[in-house]
Amino acid sequence: MKLKVLFVTTILFSLFAKSQTLNEERILGEWEAISVEIPNSSGVSQKEASKLIKDAFLNSKFNFKGNKVFRIKYSKLADEKMKELLFLENQNWIIKNGKIRIGTEKDGFSIMKIVYEEIDGKTYFISPNIRLEMKKLSNDRPAKPKIIESKTETVEKVDSTKSDFIYKELTSLKL
């Protein structure tokens, strides 16, 4: 009898756990960062960097559009240099391996990876060095994906073994 109760409990728990997995409907829409936590930010130089990050992300808005385009509005306190470093605006997004991945197909959606987590009725977006408590402001609906091309320039590789080198003798050197 105990084995049957354990078996039924395990099945019910696994069904509940599966219902908590990340899906597009859950993430689609606009979110606002209402709290920013940066673990291990106690050193003086780390405190300055932490302030830059907190200023950029506190009250920022993340928008996961139905057409797979990610938009971000940084906080009004965000430093312009910080905005330039975090080139997240107008990228594509996907859900892969339980994470929200931001970027383009060309870069393997590697610009940013976000773990979505719900704890005690609160929603968190967690990236390697930052944890944002998020509040959903609005929903969006799935739409035809808009493919964003990579913003990084592609450098064409040159096969130097097939190049003709030009040699020029220096006959005189004037100093």
What percentage of residues falls in helices of 4 or more residues?
A: 10-25%
Largest sheet: 8 strands, antiparallel, barrel
Mean pLDDT: 78
Radius of gyration: 24 Å
How would you describe this structure to a colleague?
The chain has 175 residues and is α+β, with helices and mostly antiparallel strands. It has a single domain (22-150), classed as Lipocalin. The chain has 4 helices and 8 strands. The chain is globular, with a radius of gyration of 24 Å. The relative contact order is 0.17.
Explain the layout of strands and helices.
Layout: H1 2-19, H2 24-27, E1 29-37, H3 44-57, E2 61-64, E3 69-73, H4 80-85, E4 91-96, E5 99-103, E6 112-119, E7 122-127, E8 130-138
Antiparallel strand pairs: 1-2, 1-8, 2-3, 3-4, 4-5, 5-6, 6-7, 7-8
